[in-house]
Amino acid sequence: DTEVTQTPKHLVMGMTNKKSLKCEQHMGHRAMYWYKQKAKKPPELMFVYSYEKLSINESVPSRFSPECPNSSLLNLHLHALQPEDSALYLCASSQGGTGRSNQPQHFGDGTRLSIL
Amino acid sequence: RKEVEQDPGPFNVPEGATVAFNCTYSNSASQSFFWYRQDCRKEPKLLMSVYSSGNEDGRFTAQLNRASQYISLLIRDSKLSDSATYLCVVNPDSWGKLQFGAGTQVVVTP
């Protein structure tokens, strides 16, 4: 069982919809991540939060908007997505903050997103 | 050159056999190394960290060769449940930007 919980598991939305993906961890990890994964490809980093502050944005389009309300929660707000944004969206967390730790990242089981 | 390169396979392995595969990385200053396994349509799961002296976890053995910039994974006594894609993951620094290989597919057959 994963210790990083993501909701919803599946999401189908139209290009004009607004929705949010949620991620929660209670391991005391201080770094949290959003990844996008297409079929048969490795995960691609989107955002990194360290101590609740955005530390890395991998030039992600503004239709994806991350938010870190507290040390346990990470959201990804979606608006006006395109069909090519259909993918598995993975959240991960790691112990300590970035810049301080080489600890492994632990992944949630993802949200499978389909854009109609 | 890709930052992390893996043989995509598939490696078809009879049940009970041993399989080994490597991964090469380009940044000689890379700090930490991991093997993850990923089942079809599931999330990557940490299999093991790879330490400089090499390490073993049950049937799995990982080795790191810094001079030649590769890591390896060996699976002994393969089980059907070992069928998965194995991702080589390198942390070039401590800032969280992991570098992923494209994965090596292992298929264990009865």
Task: Please report the total strand number of chain A as a whole number.
Answer: 11
Q: How many helical elements of chain B?
A: 0
Q: Which whole number gives the mean pLDDT of chain A?
A: 93
- DSSP summary: helix tally of chain A: 0
User: Structural class, judged by helices and strands of chain B?
Assistant: mainly beta
Largest sheet of chain A: 7 strands, mixed
Strand content of chain A: over 45%
The outline of chain A comes out as globular
Given as residue ranges, the uncertain stretches of chain B (5+ residues, pLDDT < 50) are none
Q: Return the average pLDDT of chain B rounded to an integer.
A: 95
Radius of gyration of chain B equals 13 Å
How does this structure look, described?
The complex is a heterodimer of chains A (116) and B (110). Chain A is mostly beta strands. Chain A has strands spanning 4-7, 10-13, 18-25, 31-37, 44-50, 53-57, 64-70, 73-79, 87-94, 106-107, 111-115. In chain A, the strands form two sheets. In chain A, strands 2, 4, 5, 6, 9, 10 and 11 form a seven-stranded mixed beta sheet that branches. A four-stranded antiparallel beta sheet of chain A has the order 1-3-8-7, with no helix packed on it. Chain B is mainly β. Helices cover 0% and strands 54% of the residues of chain B. Chain B contains no helices and eleven strands. In chain B, strands 2, 4, 5, 9, 10 and 11 form a six-stranded mixed beta sheet that branches. In chain B, 35% of the residues are buried. Chains A and B meet through strand 5, strand 9 and strand 10 of A and strand 5 of B.
